[in-house]
Write a structure and sequence with these properties.
four-stranded antiparallel β-sheet; 337 residues; alpha+beta; Tetrahydropterin Synthase, Chain A; 8 helices; rod-shaped
């Protein structure tokens, strides 16, 4: 309770007391009883009531979240040029009054959901897009009264600015902006661009009408039932196409994997064949080298010795004539030599 309300409350009790004393004076006077003391009390109460009522009517307390516009019968124009800020103020009693405006942010919602916005029922904005589709837009406009222009706001709109200006301008600007885009652009690629366009236009319009736009929220976009069904069918077809493409890609990967496995096996066989061939070549080279070394190491005496060893396993003694070298001719030697 502020001081103005307190003074007005005390003044009300003083008026009640004064009326009560007047009744008592009338009763005592009808009975021809003295009323001197009551008359004094009545005078004190009426003076107190008038004084408190006058002071209470002249003192105005503006809350921290309010702005005050002084309407006056004094001077020209009927309105003080300067608004009242938060705090305690004095106005001319009974000649001036204060109209209060909220300083805080206000929200106006246009929605298709009942009881969600300021208007009852479906208050969504119906828009015909550039490609002829019908869409329904839910939005919220967050705004505030311009503290420096609240007097002009009162002169222009009084307290009907929300219904006659905010709602009307929001619907018109949103409808004009949405009609510049195709339905798919509104839903996906150009939604943010459209919201920015609406915000800029609303900010300009609000500033011209003594309001400040705080924010614009594009809450929801709905289609007609026919278009929604068409979009759903299109999405299903796209999903099926993506699934088919995935299957094709999977088969390609499986075929590529099989090709790589076959190529790996063929490469392994080639490498194995090359290894075997190189092994045979090395073996043949080794045998040739061994034969060459063996041939180089053979002498006539060694050949004779090996020849004798291979005549028969059971031969223990060999008789050699004095005029011949061996009983039998050596391999490669002429008979009778």
């Amino acid at each position: 309770m502020n001081i103005s309300s307190l003074l007005q409350g005390i003044a009300s009790f003083a008026w009640i007391g004064f009326i009560g004393i007047l009744v008592a004076i009338s009763v005592r006077a009808s009975r021809k009883q003295p009323v001197g003391g009551l008359s004094t009390a009545a005078i004190v109460l009426i003076v107190t009531a008038l004084l408190l009522t006058t002071i209470g009517a002249g003192i105005v307390f503006i809350e921290p979240d309010e702005l005050g516009v002084v309407v006056t019968v004094l001077g020209s124009g009927g309105i003080r040029s300067d608004p009242l800020d938060s705090g305690l103020h004095w106005i001319v009693p009974f000649a001036e009054r204060v109209e209060r405006y909220p300083r805080t942010n206000q929200t106006y919602t246009l929605s298709s959901t009942p009881d969600e916005g300021q208007m009852q029922g479906d208050d969504a904005i119906q828009v015909r897009t550039m490609d002829g589709q019908q869409v329904y837009i839910d939005a919220s406009v967050i705004y505030a009264v311009d503290p420096l222009k609240v007097v002009q706001l009162y002169s222009t709109w009084r307290f009907s600015y929300e219904d006659l200006f905010v709602r009307t301008q929001a619907r018109g600007v949103i409808r004009d902006a949405a009609s510049q885009y195709g339905v798919e652009e509104i839903v996906s690629t150009k939604r943010a661009e459209m919201a920015d366009s609406i915000t800029q236009e609303l900010a300009r319009t609000f500033a011209e009408n003594n309001l400040i736009l705080r924010d614009f929220v594009l809450r929801n976009i709905r289609f007609s039932d026919e278009y929604a069904a068409a979009v759903e069918q299109k999405q299903i077809a796209e999903q099926l196409a993506q699934q088919a493409a995935f299957v094709v890609e999977q088969k390609k990967q499986e075929a590529e994997q099989a090709r790589q496995v076959a190529q790996g096996q063929a490469d392994a066989q080639v490498i194995a064949a090359k290894g075997e061939a190189e092994a045979l070549l090395i073996q043949a080279q080794a045998e040739a080298e061994a034969n060459r070394l063996l041939a180089a190491s053979l002498t006539p005496e060694l050949i004779q010795y090996q020849y004798i060893l291979n005549l028969a396993p059971g031969v223990q003694t060999i008789f050699v004539p004095s005029d011949q070298q061996f009983i039998l001719p050596l391999p490669g030697s002429a008979v009778g030599q």
